[in-house]
Amino acid sequence: HRVDRRQRQMCIRDRMKSDPTTINAQTTIKEVAETLAKEEFHALPVVDESNKLEGIVTTTDLVNYLIDQY
Questions:
Q1: Mean pLDDT, to the nearest integer, of 3-13?
Q2: DSSP 23
Q3: Are 31 and 10 in contact (CB under 8 A)?
Q4: Would you say 43 and 56 are in contact if contact means Cβ atoms under 8 Å apart?
Q5: What is the DSSP letter of 51?
Q6: Measured between alpha carbons, how far is 16 from 2 in angstroms, rounded to an integer?
Q7: By the 8 A CB rule, do 36 and 20 touch?
Q8: Distance between first and last Cα of the chain
Q9: Cα–Cα distance for residue pair 65/57, rounded to 1 Å
Q10: pLDDT digits over 14-60, tens only?
Q11: Which of 8, 58, 59, 69 is disulfide-compatible with 43, CB 3.0–4.6 A?
């Protein structure tokens, strides 16, 4: 399978969203799950009030939370 030269040289900045969907640390587990499902995302950046990245929550994080609950 040959990859053309443009694809090999493409940077992630060419594919990333410049204004991503974010959540904050006070977002509820239910809201996170709803956003991930609705948007068909597998992860969401968590930002503070200054829009500074605090972390990332993933579908795996939610599954682990559910496992711990049951």
A1: 73
A2: B
A3: no
A4: yes
A5: -
A6: 24
A7: no
A8: 46
A9: 11
A10: 888 889 999 999 999 999 999 999 999 999 999 999 999 999 999 99
A11: 58
What would the DSSP string read from start to end of 31-43? HHHHHHHHHT-SE
Which helix H or strand E contains 47, and what residues bound it?
Answer: strand 43-47
Residue 20 dihedral angles phi and psi, to the nearest 5° = -70, 155
Give yes or no for a contact between 65 and 29, defined as CB atoms under 8 angstroms apart.
Answer: yes
With beta carbons less than 8 A apart as the criterion, state whether 47 and 22 touch: yes
User: Which pLDDT score is estimated for 15?
Assistant: 85
Sequence letter at residue 22: T
Residue bearing tokens 């509820």: 28
Q: 40-46: which pairs have CB atoms within 8 A and are 24 or more residues apart?
A: 45/20, 46/22
Helix (H, G, I), strand (E, B) or coil at 4: coil
Q: What's the chain's Rg over C-alpha atoms?
A: 16
Residue 70 in tokens? 């049951």
Q: Tell me, what DSSP letter sits at residue 18?
A: S
